[in-house]
Write a sequence for this structure.
């Protein structure tokens, strides 16, 4: 392990409040003391832990001004937005302040470093408080020790915002390590949406990402978060996401996973209030030796709540995916409705999809179901489409798009949905030519 | 030139011979009905002509406007002018009817040419109206959750949008009530013309009241055992297939 990753930067230590310094130190300790995962760990079953190497990455150096400008320019997945933040290698590149009307209502949208200075009490309460229970505690520790880039979004009681806040996290330098953090705090009776975008500057720049996102959805808060991960194939990525939902909160998470050589995605939902409804959707396009490792928790601690998970993966040559999901229903959580579905479409015989669905139910009046299916391309469907004159390659493309449409449909923004279709299209176009 | 000439076609699947030295000629502009009991090879013929790869062609030729299509990919055969209306149309989740037909049309254009979206939708809506299909269907996933009748109408819609020279309709009447049968038949009759031929595969005579064929063939045990005009279908309807089976068996036994 290189000392550079283990040594928190002086700049972080300098002006930070004591509580944060403590959290950082504890995180670093956690990172150092916890062992690297092994294939024997249940939380890492089927993962190629041997290939997990995080050595030789450095806290990123500041990119050139021209790079910051160029990448801000390319941060254009969503035009209608309430605010935008762009980071390159964890360095702020651009920040579009929110409209003063929102500021007057008490909405806070700030880079995390400024938020620490300006709203220490809020950050003390929420920042770096939700770790992961899904296996990557060690890496969460590294994130806690190092996170300086990211966004705080605070929506006070009763405020509804239609347009999304969009955070872009780019990597640019050589073997840089980035630690983006998205913190969303939605108070009672609010409505808000956020898009996180994870992009690489080029096809070549190697990077390590350990990002964390925390959603705190207060009573009857409506939170919609989308995350688009399209790193280049030289990136090792950990995304450690948590959602905490209080009474009657409605939260929708949509994850789009396209890039990285290895992408570990941990997504845990904890329902702490009755009547909450949390959706977890994901689509993954896996190709060439990519490994997507997805671990999820749906934890119901309160009665009469709903959670619904749908993860769809399409796999091309030599790609691997792992889906491991657990629904946990606590003793008093009667009237829970919890669903979990994982669908894998194998487009090549060398692809491998692993599924580990699970239930742990301590209440007796619940409706829970889980299911995982893995299937090949349906030859009968292919014949039908080709009989209409559609070439095999185009037919496959239509089928894969159709497979994903169920998730894309949830995006709720025509522009973003179209942009995502283009990203997926681009990835498939080159690959499907070989069919 | 004949639209279709099937010459001495013998086809097997998993070692079992289904089509036995089968021959059939459909001249340009004619509608031929292919009737017969279940399991005599009618659907196999349709699939083999369309390029389905599960079947083994032992011998013979399928000439579409003079060109042998056996061994070609299904999309190439479609481009050569054959359309197969499926007995059981497949459901394709997430692919809308409009996008599907557009992709099929785009595949027929020379490289670099694009479809005019406005004209495309105008034509699509007109044809849907004629088939009494709700315009909202264009955005629905192809055949997903459709009733039997909706699926068959959707097949005829595709057929009329793709303008094939040979329409092979495999049991299009199965699963249709009488109203849907009339609508589908009207759609087919509108497409009849001097440059287009039809092979209407059916088990029942009922469809042929609406789509009146020029020639009726009766198929049994992988071969055509009798051909005649539209009256033959009516005769079959009243006497049943056993009549013709027995006649055939008596004739072959006597050889």
């Amino acid at each position: 392990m290189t000392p550079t990753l283990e040594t928190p930067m002086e700049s972080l230590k300098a002006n930070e409040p004591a509580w944060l310094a403590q959290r950082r130190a504890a995180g670093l300790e956690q990172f150092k003391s916890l062992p690297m995962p092994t294939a024997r760990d249940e939380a890492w079953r089927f993962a190629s832990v041997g290939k997990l190497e995080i050595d030789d990455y450095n806290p990123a150096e500041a990119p050139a001004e021209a790079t910051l400008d160029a990448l801000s320019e390319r941060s254009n997945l969503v035009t209608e937005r309430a605010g935008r933040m762009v980071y390159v290698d964890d360095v702020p590149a651009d920040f579009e302040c929110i409209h003063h009307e929102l500021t007057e209502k008490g909405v806070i949208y700030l880079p995390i470093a400024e938020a620490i200075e300006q709203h220490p009490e809020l950050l003390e309460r929420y920042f770096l408080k939700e770790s992961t229970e899904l296996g990557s505690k060690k890496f969460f520790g590294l994130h806690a020790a190092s996170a300086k880039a990211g966004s705080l979004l605070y929506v006070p009681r009763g405020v509804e915002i239609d347009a999304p806040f969009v955070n872009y996290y780019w990597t640019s330098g050589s073997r840089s390590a980035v630690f983006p953090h998205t913190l969303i705090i939605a108070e009672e009776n609010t409505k808000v949406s956020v898009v996180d975008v994870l992009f690489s500057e080029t096809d070549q720049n190697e990077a390590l990402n350990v990002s964390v996102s925390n959603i705190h959805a207060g009573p009857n808060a409506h939170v919609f978060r989308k995350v688009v991960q399209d790193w280049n194939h030289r990136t090792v990525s950990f995304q450690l996401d948590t959602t905490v939902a209080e009474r009657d909160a409605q939260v929708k998470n949509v994850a789009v996973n396209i890039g990285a050589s290895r992408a570990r995605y941990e997504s845990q939902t904890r329902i702490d209030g009755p009547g909450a409804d949390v959706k977890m959707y994901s689509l993954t396009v896996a190709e060439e030796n990519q490994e997507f490792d997805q671990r999820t928790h749906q934890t119901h601690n309160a009665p009469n709540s709903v959670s619904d998970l749908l993860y769809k993966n399409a796999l091309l040559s030599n790609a691997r995916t792992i889906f491991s999901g657990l629904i946990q229903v606590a003793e008093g959580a009667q009237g829970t409705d919890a669903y979990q579905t994982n669908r894998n479409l194998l487009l090549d015989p060398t692809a491998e999809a692993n599924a580990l669905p699970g239930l742990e139910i301590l209440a007796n009046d619940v409706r829970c179901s889980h299911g995982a299916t893995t299937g090949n391309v349906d030859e009968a469907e292919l014949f039908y489409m080709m009989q209409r004159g559609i070439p095999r390659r185009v037919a496959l493309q239509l089928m894969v798009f159709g497979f994903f449409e169920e998730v894309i449909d949830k995006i709720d923004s025509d522009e973003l949905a179209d942009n995502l279709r283009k990203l997926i299209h681009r990835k498939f176009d080159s690959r499907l030519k070989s069919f | 030139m004949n639209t279709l000439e099937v010459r001495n076609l013998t086809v097997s699947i998993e070692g079992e011979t289904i089509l036995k030295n089968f021959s059939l000629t459909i001249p340009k502009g004619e509608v031929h009905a292919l009737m017969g009991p279940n399991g005599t090879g009618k659907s196999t013929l349709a699939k083999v002509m369309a390029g389905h790869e599960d079947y083994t062609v032992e011998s013979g030729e399928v000439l579409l406007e003079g060109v042998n299509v056996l061994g070609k990919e299904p999309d190439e055969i479609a481009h050569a002018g054959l359309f197969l209306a499926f007995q059981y149309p497949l459901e394709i989740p997430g692919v809308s009817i409009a996008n599907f037909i557009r992709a099929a049309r785009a595949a027929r254009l020379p490289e670099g040419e694009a479809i005019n979206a406005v004209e495309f939708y105008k034509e699509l809506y007109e044809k849907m109206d004629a088939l009494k299909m709700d315009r909202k269907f264009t955005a629905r996933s192809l055949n997903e959750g459709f009733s039997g009748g909706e699926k068959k109408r959707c097949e005829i819609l595709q057929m009329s949008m793709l303008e094939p020279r040979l329409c092979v309709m495999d049991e299009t009447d199965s699963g249709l009530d009488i109203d849907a049968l009339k609508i589908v038949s009207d759609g087919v009759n509108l497409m009849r013309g001097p440059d287009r031929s039809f092979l209407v595969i059916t088990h029942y005579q009922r469809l042929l009241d609406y789509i009146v064929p020029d020639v009726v063939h009766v198929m049994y045990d992988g071969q055509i055992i009798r051909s005649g005009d539209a009256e033959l279908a009516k005769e079959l309807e009243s006497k049943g297939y056993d009549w013709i089976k027995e006649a055939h068996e008596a004739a072959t036994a006597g050889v």
